[in-house]
Amino acid sequence: MTEKVIMAGFGGQGVMSMGQLLTYAGMIENKQVSWLPSYGPEMRGGTANCAVIVSESPVGSPIITTDATSAIVMNLPSLVKFEENLKANGKLLINSSLIEQKTKREDVEAYYIPANEIANELGNNKVANMVMLGAFLELTKIVNVESVIEALKKVFGPAKEHLVPLNKQALERGAAAVK
Amino acid sequence: MAKVLMKGNEAIAAAAMKAGCKYFFGYPITPQNELPEFMSRELPKIGGVFVQAESEVAAINMIYGAAGTGARVMTSSSSPGMALKQEGISYCAGAELPCVIVNISRGGPGLGGIQPSQADYFMTTRGGGNGDYRHPVYAPATLQEAVDLTMEAFDVADYYRTPVIVMGDGMIGQMMEPVEFKETSNRELPAKDWATTGTEGKRQPNIINSLALDPAELEKHCHKLDARYKEIEEKEVRHEMYKMEGAEIVLVAYGTTSRIVKNAIDALQKEGIKAGLIRPITLWPFPEKAFDAIPETAKVILTVEMSTGQMIDDVKIANKGRLPIEFYGRTGGMIPTPEAIMEQVKEILGGVK
């Protein structure tokens, strides 16, 4: 099984860290993983995206072209840019809090998740990315939620361990949104 | 030691420190900035030195000075910055100074762009600087390989008293993969009795120099270097063969491009087309002998590069005129897709049949 996921949004929405957490979690589960960021002359608030591959077999090219099995889009430009990269029957997770329109693709499974609203209900707008990641994990089961929590602890370090419960809640709410 | 998830640039820096590199001199340039950033943060913690020089030229000359004391030293840059370092690299080669230089290359010529490219093949393998010299060039395709080869590069540099280049591109530098830092070195390294460590009045001064005005002396020196290069060609060449058995077409690619080519080969296999890969791991010395092992089933060679065709010259030399050689490349920071490579293979095989 190979999951090739594109994560995209604007700078500050946490798409890079969402990708890193998934990659880290895959590594914890002894899967083959790669994380490839877009890089370029970007400004604050500009677009950000990364390509994550989690697989049972060695990762060849870390680039995802038109063979994405999933895409998580956090804002409208990301939807427009990356919906084309999905394979037929791929999963498209759309942050409906910021994206009003629907996907043009009729051959993909689209999920509309009000990630910012859910994050606000949890008291912190910044965990919208974790809501999306929670939904993604529920749909794909590519790694266990526990591995993501473990990854969180490693990435945050002891100083920010108090943020783990909030992130865990966000993951759970995201999962519940697509059940 | 357990695996850790790191960015390529950071992994190379960490590997250098693991190999005993304590001194780093560099000048910022995208897409390798995480490497000096890591060094600036970590080297002071172990009593090492990080210097952001005023230019790439200054940095490589600091390397010359520090390497002269026998310390393990590194600098890193990206294509236009590497071009500036060439004079210093030639001086290091002439003065037989071990050092490791990392090139996380980007599109050119000129200031070019910042996206991945392999257009520095000529500069890196043909000697961008003046004079009769060579230096080993490692081209990792994965971050684990980048770590292993960086550590190896320090040993090779010390053993042969030569600059060694580790060359990746923006993709290798920016991506994250799990890496493990293994204890590797089992090479017996000669004592650095040539280093300028202070005579304490007990011996004649050691002199680090690349000037030799007497042609007979300079020829002798060049022959000494050449003998060393021949030994490197014999002992240090590395490559990987992938799915070569029964291959109808042999692709040649290194670094980032080789990963994309492997995807294409796997997909072609599913369609019943047998394609294999020769992946040079050392660009110099180039794995010429690998081409002698191409199976008789092969009808054609396809070189794939992120350039308009540079390694293809070495492929032609290694092929010794045996098979037709085709080329496919993207350049300027564009990355070839597996689909496009598959298309090329099908077109070529259709034409050869």
UniProtKB/TrEMBL annotation, chain A:
SUPFAM superfamilies: Pyruvate-ferredoxin oxidoreductase, PFOR, domain III. The keyword Oxidoreductase applies. Residues 11-175 form the Pyruvate/ketoisovalerate oxidoreductase catalytic domain. Keywords: Oxidoreductase. Its EC number is 1.2.7.3. GO terms for molecular function: 2-oxoglutarate synthase activity. The keyword Oxidoreductase applies. This is 2-oxoglutarate ferredoxin oxidoreductase subunit gamma.
Automatic annotation (TrEMBL), chain B:
Residues 247-341 form the Pyruvate:ferredoxin oxidoreductase core domain. It comes from Alkaliphilus hydrothermalis. It is an enzyme of class 1 (oxidoreductase). This is 2-oxoglutarate ferredoxin oxidoreductase subunit alpha. GO terms for molecular function: 2-oxoglutarate synthase activity. CDD domains: TPP_PYR_PFOR_IOR-alpha_like. InterPro entries: 2-oxoacid_oxidoreductase, PFOR_II, Pyrv_Fd/Flavodoxin_OxRdtase_N, THDP-binding, Transketo_C/PFOR_II. It holds the Pfam family PFOR_II.
